[in-house]
Amino acid sequence: MRSSIRVRFAPSPTGYLHVGGARTALFNYLFAKRMGGTFILRIEDTDRSRYQEDACKEIYESLQWLGITWDEGPDVGGAYGSYVQSERVDLYRKHAQQLLESGHAYRCFCTPQRLEELRNYQEKNKLDPGYDKQCRNLPAQESARLLAENTPHIIRLKIPQDRVVAFNDLIRGAIEYKSAVLDDLVLMKTDGFPTYHLANVVDDHAMEISHVLRGDEWIASTPRHVLLYEAFGWTPPIFAHMPVILSADGGKLSKRKGAASVLDYKNQGYLPEALFNFLALLGWSLGDGDEREKLSQEELISVFSLGQVSPKASVFDEKKLEWMNGLYMRERTSISLAELVVPFWKQKGWVPNATPVSDTTLVKVIDLLKERSKKIVDMVESATYFFIAPVQYEEKAVRKYFVPDAIKILADLCELLSKAESFEHAALEALYKNYGDSLGIAFGVLIHPTRLAVSGVSFGPGLFELLEVLGKEQVCSRLQTAIAFIQNAVATRTES
Hints:
Blueprint (H helix, E strand, L loop, with lengths): L5 E4 L9 H16 L3 E4 L11 H14 L22 H14 L2 E4 L3 H13 L15 H9 L5 E4 L6 E6 L3 E6 L7 E3 L7 H11 L4 E5 L6 H11 L5 E5 L2 E2 L15 H6 L4 H9 L16 H7 L10 E2 L2 H14 L2 H14 L12 H10 L8 H4 L2 H4 L7 H7 L3 H15 L5 H15 L3 H13 L7 H8 L1 H24 L1
Parallel strand pairs: 1-2, 8-9, 10-11
Antiparallel strand pairs: 3-4, 4-7, 5-6
Helix pairs in contact: 1-10, 9-11, 12-13, 17-21, 18-20, 19-21
């Protein structure tokens, strides 16, 4: 083992950062912080045909929002830069040449058309896929002639024959591959750029990476990487491959089944600390009977261990994420939530743009909504009646609470409320109690039609806190509208 812990997250900017990639970054980050090591961000952009410039910006933004910071990387620098692979191409070409000279690699002049025909032939005849090594033993004179004629070519790794390639995985234990199942890996492409495999190995060695923590889809590539380290005469890092993440129905995680981008979750109203906590528990657990599920970033750093990462697949349960997000929302101050919610209210035209997010009334609305909300967007969807008087009422509740007797009750309450000296929730509750006691009416007979009248629905935050936030003028206006609605409904039923 190297004397210092150095790990990296090395995404390819070919699309958004999905939750699987974020989980890999998070495990690398937690491990580095737990061990007092260094966490590196490296951009692997050598696949120029799929490169997306905006993807780099999204990767940075996603990680920063999630709370994952890096010690070395493209934007912060470091002693091992550059941390963008397209800026290190000369280094890869130098090492490819070194492999050619040592006899561990060779130039392949096969055309794309020939390789396609080979694949079709293998598929048709049910043969194992892979390169047939036609150029592996090409005479040096012929190779030199083709090279002098500028014939397009690639460089391949010469996989040793009749070998067992073994490596130890910290999560899965000993893994072995027979070299016969490994075809001669492409190292350099015709465009002069390296493949992922060469650039990855060269950079991990050059940047003194001690541990490679990555998704289990890279297990099959690891024996090839081990052979590359061997060809260069380098000591490989320690490998640990993270378990796969499945959708709730047991299938592969896809964008339709939960693998949305990290920023999608931000836009849907999830808090970064909730998503961080949730992702940490996908394939990792505390162990030793500790069943805690809600842990802060600091707590996770203090207890994280690769020994507690399971090789078994984990399930992305969005309902659990919502539950956890709700816990963190209730823990947040209403002021901090207002900074996230009020812009949505302004977009809908409910709140003037000049209104500060710290406005007392707006913060009180947040106070009432956050206890029942699981996402930021919930506090948008459920806040309508705080800003707009209902124009229709919950149908089932109308039949139950907007009965003829409710006309006099709401009228009496409207009169009492209009004369109330205090509109604080405690005073309003006392007013309702006194009125109900004077007539021998159950509290619910007063509360339910009032709630329906002022909000249009039969559920929500505490009624008297709601009335206080709405204010006397708005409450009395809405009660009058509800009275008229009931009177009209009664008259309509009588006529029919």
